[in-house]
Amino acid sequence: MSEVDLIATMIVPAGVRTEVSQLLRDYGRQVRTEPGNLRFESYLDRDRGALVVVERYRDEAAFNDHLARPENAAFNARLGEISGGVSVLQMLEALS
Length: 96
Description:
The chain is α+β, with helices and mostly antiparallel strands. The protein is built from 3 helices and 4 strands; from the N terminus they run βαββααβ.
């Protein structure tokens, strides 16, 4: 089985960026404890002001387990409440 790599991008208004950044940091600490998570790093895109997360999971099953966790639903619901937005996912495939 191959690893699952993705980039999640969140466009958030400047006025709530600090609050969403803290929410993302807190969520990242939780995600990194998941058994199938290999990478969860969050960044600020300085050019666009977007928040960007680079994620890697051991395999498709680990990624699906991540998506099914109640913490994931809670994070996305809170993100929507704060910023009115959601994450846009880019699923990546390595060029071998």
